[in-house]
Fold this protein.
Amino acid sequence: YRERRLPPPDQPPPLAHYPGISIIVPCYNEEENAHETFAAAAAVDYPNFEIIAVNDGSRDNTAAELERLATLIPNLRVVHLAKNQGKAMAMNAGALLAKNEIIVCIDGDALLDPHALRWIAVMFQSPQVGALTGNPRIRNRTSILGRLQVGEFSAIIGLIKRAQATYGRLFTVSGVICAFRKRALHEAGWWNTRTLTDDIDVTWRVQMAGWRVVYEPNAIVWILMPETLRGLWKQRLRWAEGG
């Protein structure tokens, strides 16, 4: 009911000033997905942004693929970590190197919607906003499990986010599409490398530091989800343990 009265995703309201945004993409063994992910990130409709790819000690040819993409995408910077240290460490490395105050985080196999950054910039016009969670949509729908998760994300998870936003506290940002004010991250202590679900942990600490966390349904990213029972079980077990 509420979304039908919101502007459509491809019509973000104009701003007098567009703040610089740094897109951080942690990558671990993302050789097959890198080209598609960074091509989508480079094609977003936004006047002032950079992309930082953090190669988290990948064992495949991710490093070489990222360096190749850096020659094609002028605003792409590549950072290589000596060994695999986990997503939280990769995010911290990228955030510390980011030149902009607003940081947008996506996964290495996610496709950013062309208008997502404009919607994020609108929400960060409020100085009380320290973090934002976007709206992940599933793009692999070739199996029954994939199609079931389409309904889960669009209905159940979206409803939970809206309910939590109504009473003013979000349980967690979506790690696959979220944004932070760099100052808020600093006051919260950055990402914790000792947690299974660092997105839950950082969401709580940002709010405990006095910042608001908001939900923007028009900040869309297209994601890949497990399409086997084994993959789904491993993912949900990690979510349950981390939560």
Q: What stands out?
A: The chain has eight helices and eight strands.
